Structures are given as structure tokens and as C-alpha cells.
Amino acid sequence: MELNQIADLLKDIHNMIDNNYLIGNEEIIIDIKDPSIFKNNNFIKNLGPYKQIKKDDELLKNDIKCSICCQNFKEGEYKRNLPLCNHVFHKKCIDKWLKNKKECPICRCDYSCLE
């Protein structure tokens, strides 16, 4: 559950209270299945440097796509190679992915050790 989802849930609960949908001694229990959303996601900097894609990059020569967004890599975009499995993605795609799941989307290599 992401922070914006939690905020939406809290707004819904607030609206239910304001509209008297919750009356009496009912308890509101929010089950957060993934407490890692409250952790600092600065571990992404531990993945090492990212690189700009140059016109002679193998990704362009072989017409390779990012496995997250399914778009071709383009000159000038940024790529990130994951250090443990060496899979490559658009930097923005894999950084967003790793904020929610601490594993490679291709091989499921665990990256939680970098936190």
C-alpha cells in the first residue's frame, strides 16, 4: 500500500465519521500488509551509478526494450543495471519499481539487502 493509498483511505474514514456512518464504539482497523512503505527508500543510491544511453549502446543496436514499461531504450535516456543480476531498465522505471518491491522484476533477485 503506497502513501497516497493510505491518505485516500484516511480521507474515506474521515468522511464516514463526518457522515455518521460510524456510530458508537466501532473500531477502525487498518491492516498495512507491507510496513516497508514507512522505511526510507534511499537504498536506491546503493545500487550504484546509472548511465546515459549513447548512440553506440548495445541496447540501441539490439533493439532491446525495458521490461517494465515495454518501451525501446532511446539515446539520451538513462539506464540502470542492477548490480546483483545485471538486468537493465530505464532508470525511472526501475527506481519506481524498487520503491515498492525490493526485487528484480525479471529474475526476482532480492535487493532488500541494500537497505
UniProtKB/TrEMBL annotation:
Nucleotide-binding as UniProt keyword: no
Subcellular location: Membrane
GO cellular component term, pick one: membrane
Protein's UniProt keywords contain Zinc: yes
InterPro entries in the record: Znf_RING, Znf_RING/FYVE/PHD
PROSITE patterns membership: ZF_RING_2
Gene3D superfamilies: Zinc/RING finger domain, C3HC4 (zinc finger)
GO biological-process terms attached to the record: protein ubiquitination
Limits of the RING-type domain: 66-108
Gene Ontology terms, MF aspect: zinc ion binding
Keywords attached to this entry: Membrane, Metal-binding, Zinc, Zinc-finger
PANTHER family attached to this UniProt entry: NEP1-INTERACTING PROTEIN-LIKE 2
Record protein name field: Ring finger domain
Source organism (scientific name): seawater metagenome
